[in-house]
Amino acid sequence: MVPSPSSPTRPPPPRRPRMNSKDIPRTYSGLYGYGNDLLPFELARNSNTEWVANAGWQLLLTYISVIFMFLLVLLAFFPWNLVWTAVHTIHFFAGMVYMHWIKGSPNFYEQGEMNAMTFWEQLQSTQGTANAQRALLVVPTLLCYAACHFANYDFEISVWNIVLWAVAVLCKLPFMNGVRVLGINRTTGIDDDLKVK
User: Fold this and answer.
1) Cα separations in angstroms, 34 against 21, 29, 49, 168, 186
2) Closest CA to 90 of 69, 106, 76, 62
3) Which of 29, 73, 87, 157 is an S-S bond match for 151, by CB 3.0 to 4.6 Å?
4) What confidence tens digit (pLDDT) does each residue in 17-52 have?
5) Where are the transmembrane segments (predicted)?
6) Residues 69-80: pLDDT tens digits?
């Protein structure tokens, strides 16, 4: 049968050297990776962080809306010059617990490969989350500025807000990825090779 001129013909597949499947590195859960580094492959399929990478501007809008709702609720309990400090403090503690304290992933199919990593460490290791990371660095900075500004740069309030901001931003810097200061938040059985002096 001769192909008609309207139907395209496929070119033959390229000749590639074949690799034995036992030579392809795998994780405990059977997923494939390249070289001896399986973690980037695991992180590419991490359901704990993929919602951040795929969310876009809707996530930022929701994030800012929740912060302003807290601001409006706290107006009933605090004077105007302290509301921004209260919002900044709540944001700091919620962010520290969720992003820098809780480890692992809710996905139980990964066989525990993420058990030693916090949410921020997983986010830093995931492709396509640079904009989310920038937003998570800018929002505490803006909250600190607003808290200091609306408190008329009162010394005690400004020091409190700047200390919270410095700790929040320091935890997010790349050189702090995987660091457990003084052994705080160390995972027994995983971080045992790290000696606390």
Assistant:
1) 12, 15, 21, 34, 29
2) 69
3) 157
4) 665 555 555 555 545 444 455 555 555 567 777 777
5) 55-77, 83-101, 159-176
6) 988 888 888 898
